[in-house]
Amino acid sequence: MREAEMVAMNSISSRTIGTVVALFGWLAFIALYLAFYAGGFDFWQKLAVFIASGAIVIAVVAVLWIRWAMK
To answer: 10 Å Cβ neighbour count for 68?
Structure first.
């Protein structure tokens, strides 16, 4: 029983770490994108990239947690 509890904790901790890494990676992407690549775009194009990249990160995090919940 002890091993099953430890596996569950490792699984939850790995999902949590993955979520934090995905969010910080997204924030780094947005900062670098706005600083170096978005100079020629108008506000709406920048907003579209922000929303699309946020949707991708949310989907990745959702897949991480849904796969854990299905076990």
So the answer is: 14
- Residues 15, 69: contact at Cβ < 8 Å? no
C-alpha pair distances (Å), 55 with each of 26, 48, 58, 59: 10, 11, 5, 6
CA 13 to chain centre: 15
How far apart are the C-alpha atoms of 63 and 60, rounded to whole Å? 5
Residue 51 sits in which domain range? Answer: 2-69
Per the structure, the count of domains in the chain is: 1
Segment 4-46, tens digit of pLDDT: 555 555 578 889 999 999 999 999 999 999 999 999 999 999 9
